[in-house]
Design brief:
about 120 residues; mainly beta; 11 strands
């Protein structure tokens, strides 16, 4: 079955950096575009960034462009999110999932099975 395990969150000051990791298993990772999503309290879960199956292209939400970098290692079935210049509005639980519709302009979660997420808290 699909398993997604996120890690790397924490409490940081505004302007600092964090690096998130996601270990994926139970599906053909190398053939699946992947994404990071986040959910802040009282808000819907939104796409943060996505990467194509082979890592050749990426896309970012407007609020994180120029600050976050998504990458993947297909040899390890891992996807990463480097978050720089963090802001208080980046505070959320971060999740990884497959990126259904990558390249179509409408990216949404591929699997209904979510990991536990990792909490990112940015203090101002």
């Amino acid at each position: 079955q699909v398993q997604l395990v996120e890690s790397g969150g924490g409490l940081v000051q505004a302007g600092e950096s964090l690096s998130l990791s996601c270990a994926a298993s139970g599906f053909g990772f190398n053939n699946q575009a992947m994404g990071w999503f986040r959910q802040a309290p009282g808000k819907e879960r939104d796409l943060v960034a996505a990467i194509s199956s082979k890592g050749g292209s990426t896309t970012y939400g407007d609020s994180v462009k120029g600050r976050f970098i998504i990458s993947r290692d297909n040899a390890k079935d891992m996807v990463y999110l480097q978050m720089n210049s963090l802001k208080s509005e980046d505070t959320a639980v971060y999740y990884c999932n497959g990126a259904l519709g990558y390249g179509s302009g409408w990216v949404r979660p591929w699997s209904s099975s979510w990991g536990q997420g990792t909490q990112v808290t940015v203090s101002s």
